[in-house]
Structure formats: structure tokens, C-alpha cells
Hints:
mainly beta; 7-stranded mixed beta sheet; 1 helix; globular
Amino acid sequence: xxxxxxxxxxxxxxxxSLRLSCAASGRTFTNYxxxxxxxxxxxxxxxxxxxxxxxxxxxxxxxxxxxxTISRENTKNTVYLQMxxxxxxxxxxxxxxxxxxxxxxxxxRRGAARPGDFRSWGxxxxxxxxx
Length: 131
């Protein structure tokens, strides 16, 4: 599977913006569906956004629609998560994930993807939002 390294987390005031980046290496990036999960203290990991290999299909959890944008640059083997209008409830560790199984892409399109559907995980980057 592909290796993933996230960057871009940090501390921001409510209403501010951050852009997370995830650089992939090791395999053919364009074969992979990419996504971002997050985990807040005491909560389960939650799928935030995902994007298919071509970028033609994206998914967002309802709580971030209109505020977050996922995109990918296949020439740079990088996926991004632009986060605007951040809220205290967005505070979590954000994980970049990937898999080349078509079933993962199918589940993503249906909004049914779970952490176990992705075999590659980054180390996580922390996003803190002050109110």
C-alpha cells in the first residue's frame, strides 16, 4: 500500500481556515481513492471527506458541507483538505487514508466508508480551534 504523510494542522481561531496536505509515495497514486477521517477525544473516527481517483466524485459528511473542500493533484501525489469557517467541534486529529480497492470507492460514493475499508493511514495531524 501507499505511504502517507500529513501536514498543515495547527491552532486556529473559530471562523479561521487551515489547509491540510497529504503526500503519498510508494505506489501509483492515481489508483487510489483518498479520504480524510478525524477523531476527537472520546469519540469514534469519523469520515470527513473523500475523493475518487479521478477527482470526479467527492463525499462530505453533512457537518462540513459548504465549509470543507477536498481536492487532489495527481501530478504531485497529494490530496488536500481546505477547511474554512472552522468551528470548535472540528477540533480533532485528522488522518489521511487511501486504498486501491474498488469497493472502498463504491462505499465512499455511498457515504458508507468505514475506517476498516482503508489500508493505508497517515500518522495524523492535529487541528485545534479556539472559541
